[in-house]
């Protein structure tokens, strides 16, 4: 469920204090200091994706500092990951300094002091991940050699896109929890690659990825095919499977649907089907309207149109 906060809903002289309390309540206690002498305004929308919280923030220039005294008096046990959408950020923690640009994901630990400042107005998507969930995927997260995942890398861009899209979702229940877990899996894979824990897919990982892709191709007609069943068939955990595909710059379900569309397109182009519904069912689409919409969005024409043009060419 989406929740909104907007400093403009209170009197101008009270806006900064209101925002400070909201930030402390939602994330962790830190001192906030305006960077520019301008009228203060800020807004925040927040949604819960299982144990993961994701927020969209737009704010005037600010400096946040979580001092050792804040850590002692108001303990917090989460990791925060911010995707910068506008502006520029400067983050300091563990003796490291990072200059964050648009598209980069910054990682910081609320159990430790930090300074995070924005010299200009900024906009970000901010992910709050419980320590337990992060350390289960990245055991070395507390000793990061860097504070940034670059948005210029394939995995960094994938993680950023997932965070950006998830911030606008309004989901509840198991679906929300699955989305949240998938985002953390992709971020964990990006951290592994970025910080040297796991090389981009190769060797044993490449072999396992190939097995997973082969299993998917041989079960494309199963509309119930999902991450859990694929992982069970390969005798691996769902998080291991997610990280394998993330290392290749995608997700399990994205690869599955891409393969379904590519296979259906190939069948139609080669004239191997008598009816479009046949193709949809054989590629695992249980809804013809979903198949038709997805196909047209990908290839610029409907499957019916492609089939008719193929028949005309054959004659």
Walk me through the structure:
The structure is a single chain. It contains twelve helices and twelve strands. It has helices at residues 15-26, 68-73, 131-137, 154-166, 173-194, 203-218, 227-234, 238-247, 252-269, 276-282, 288-299, 303-314; strands spanning 3-6, 31-34, 42-49, 52-59, 62-66, 78-86, 89-93, 96-100, 105-109, 114-118, 122-130, 148-149. The chain has a seven-stranded antiparallel β-sheet with strand order 1-3-4-11-6-9-12, sandwiched between helices. The chain has a five-stranded antiparallel β-sheet with strand order 2-5-10-7-8. The chain is elongated, with a radius of gyration of 23 Å.
Keywords:
315 residues, alpha+beta, 7-stranded antiparallel beta sheet, 5-stranded antiparallel beta sheet, 12 helices, 12 strands, 45% helix
């Amino acid at each position: 469920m989406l929740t909104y906060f907007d400093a403009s809903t209170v009197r101008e002289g009270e806006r900064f204090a209101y925002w400070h309390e909201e930030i402390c309540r939602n994330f962790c206690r830190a001192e906030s200091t305006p960077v520019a002498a301008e009228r203060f305004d800020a807004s925040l929308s927040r949604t819960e994706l299982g144990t993961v919280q994701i927020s969209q923030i737009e704010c005037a220039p600010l400096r946040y500092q979580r001092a050792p005294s804040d850590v002692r008096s108001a303990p917090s046990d989460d990791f925060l990951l911010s995707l910068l959408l506008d502006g520029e950020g400067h983050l300091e923690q563990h003796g490291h300094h990072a200059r964050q640009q648009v598209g980069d994901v910054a990682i910081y630990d609320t159990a430790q002091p930090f300074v995070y400042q924005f010299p200009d107005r900024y906009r970000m998507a901010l992910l709050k991940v419980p320590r337990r969930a992060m350390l289960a995927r990245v055991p070395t997260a507390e000793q990061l050699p860097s504070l940034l995942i670059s948005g210029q890398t394939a995995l960094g861009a994938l993680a950023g896109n997932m965070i950006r899209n998830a911030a606008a979702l309004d989901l509840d229940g198991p679906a929300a929890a699955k989305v949240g877990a998938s985002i953390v899996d992709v971020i964990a894979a990006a951290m592994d690659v970025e910080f040297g824990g796991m090389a981009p897919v190769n060797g044993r990982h490449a072999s396992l990825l190939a097995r997973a892709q082969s299993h998917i191709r041989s079960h494309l007609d199963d509309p119930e095919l999902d991450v859990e069943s694929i992982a069970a068939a390969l005798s691996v955990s769902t998080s291991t499977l997610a990280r394998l595909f993330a290392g290749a710059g995608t997700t399990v379900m994205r690869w599955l649907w891409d393969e379904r569309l590519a296979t259906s397109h190939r069948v139609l182009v080669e004239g191997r089907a008598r009816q479009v519904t046949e193709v949809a069912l054989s590629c695992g689409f249980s809804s013809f309207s979903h198949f038709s919409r997805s196909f047209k969005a990908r290839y610029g024409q409907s499957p019916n149109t492609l089939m008719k043009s193929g028949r005309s060419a054959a004659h």
